[in-house]
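In response to reviewer comment 3 from the previous cycle, which asked for concrete evidence that the modeling workflow produces usable outputs, we include below a single protein chain processed end to end. The sequence was submitted unchanged, and the resulting structure tokens are shown without manual editing.
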Amino acid sequence: MGAEELEEYMHELSLENPLIDEKPRKADAYIASSGCGRVRMQNGQDLELPIPDKVRNTLKMSLNEQIQFYHLPESTAAALRLLLLNLDEKGFLPENITGTKEWKKKPQAFAEALTVLQSLEPSGVGARNISECLCLQLERMGKKETLAYVICKEYLQHLVKSHFNHISKALNVEESKVIEAKKLIASLNPVPSNGFDDGKYTIWAVPDVEIAYDGGEPVVVKLDSYMPEYTINQYYEQMGSRKDLSEEESGYLREKINQAKWALDCVDRRKEMIVACAEVMAQEQREYFETGGKIHPCSMNDIANKLGVHPSTVSRTVKNKYIACRWGIVPMSRLFTQEIGGGTSEEITEAIKNIIREEDPKHPLSDNALCKSLSERGFEVARRTVAKYRDEAGIPPATGRKKR
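The workflow returned the following structure tokens.
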């Protein structure tokens, strides 16, 4: 996971698993300032890490605030936390939620949790479809025994298609009554999350590591203080060994302890692998990190061989990860490039751009002509390769560049 994705995942997991404690970010390393955070780099400079400029009023945040005032049995509270995690972006639960393994293991706890969830604001949240969502709102308004309620429950699809005559005949009511009921239904909110922030914002490039220098040698420094610290709750962990717990309680605690330890172990191994890859890359691309020079050919196979792991492990490790250095924040994946026809893809792309800048706009070069010009500069590449890099650079073919 990338930094943003990992933080969101661990936060959600800490809400669902009482064995995981979330501690705030370290104030001395990550300081909110004008919508930005700061990480103090090895060279003493502050690296700005933009974060949302306001607290997001998301639906899940609102629901979590509301349930703080409920004093629920732990089994119901745990089920409620799981239901919150399963809400989609509209505020709906999956239609098959009652058929899941978790629900079947603790049907009473989940049924109680669902009742609590559907009693929260906004009305309709926790429904499994639009029909149930509208029915919940009508019930909250004291209109359960109404034509509008029956239509929402059994004839909503016909109402959407304006089949008023069909509904009136099926329910033995006047068509005008159906039209009147439609006006009430139209005033309801079919999407519970309407009016709430969707929680989405621009994902900033948050670096996991920094390439610093100590005595002229590159050193990899972990930049993980942007994340809260997650630990195992000692109280609940010790409770798991008590003899007076029921088999169900002991099983629940064991499951949560194992999940918490697994998650924290994965986070630690993630850090170790990112640092290991960065250390090798700091040597492989030393010229770039020191002088801002060119990136040399280096494949994931090369790094994998040096680390003794499979290339797919390296691929997953560097995906959506960033390195901070004196030249800015660099995607780790950018530091991998293969030699093609005497150069890297970046070098060939730059050469194509330079050739096109110098061409006669009334007689632009074809891809075959570009191949020939590249050959004269020491790059032996096929025409389709030229076309690929040209397209990736956003440069149109000759016909699109021609000026009359």
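The radius of gyration is 29 Å. We consider this sufficient to address the reviewer's concern, and the full set will be provided in the supplementary archive.
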